[in-house]
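Input chain follows. Return structure tokens only.
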Amino acid sequence: MDDHTPPFPDLPLTPLFLWQGGWLMVMPAIDNQPHQHVAASLLVGLDQPLRVTVDGHLCQQRVVLVPPDVPQSLNSQGPVAVVHLDPDEPAWRALSRLGGLDEQQQRWCGEQITALVQTGSESQARQFLHGLRGVADPLPLDPRIADACSLMRAGEAVPSMDTLAEHANLSASRFRHLFREQLGVSLKRYQLHLKCQRALALWRSGMNFTDLAVAAGFYDQPHLNRTLRAMFDALPSRYARGLPVQVVHLKE
């Protein structure tokens, strides 16, 4: 992005765009503590460089890409686009092949996000996602792991590791090793991540958080709170009170 990106002093509230492999939202500002989530993060500052600490190293630039399961913290006094990409999401697997975005691709990200802020349209969000998926040929994913991810996303109850391993025709230990090798995260953390995604998908303004936690597959609200604190440095009540959003399910 160049230094002439226009500021957004009256940033309109952008919907939370949610799809099977991730989510996208533009927020007025963020200042969080170190946390470590399963998804990769594509962070785009709209009117100034971001301050992002990645695995203990400070990055100060407009566009920052953080791989899955890497400790990070973000400080932005201005509006910032946060894009989370699951480790099996084709967009992340395309970006990871590149190892980062060049100057032209960063400028494209800024232009796309700016257009999204101005329109708030589902079609613009979908165009951005498809563009990310097309930056390179995605790194291949073992079909057995891709199938296991699809199975875990398909139903309300997450299949056990033994069930997934049997479906893949592998021993439990071999399946667990292959899963981490392919996606860079453990199966247990990936399953917790999917429950967080389910909570996002189920959330509605004014919803009781205890009911939300149980519906998403957590034991109770404290379990949901602990998971969100560790993965996002956030509690649902904090965002529900301060930043009410409309969840938009992105049709891919």
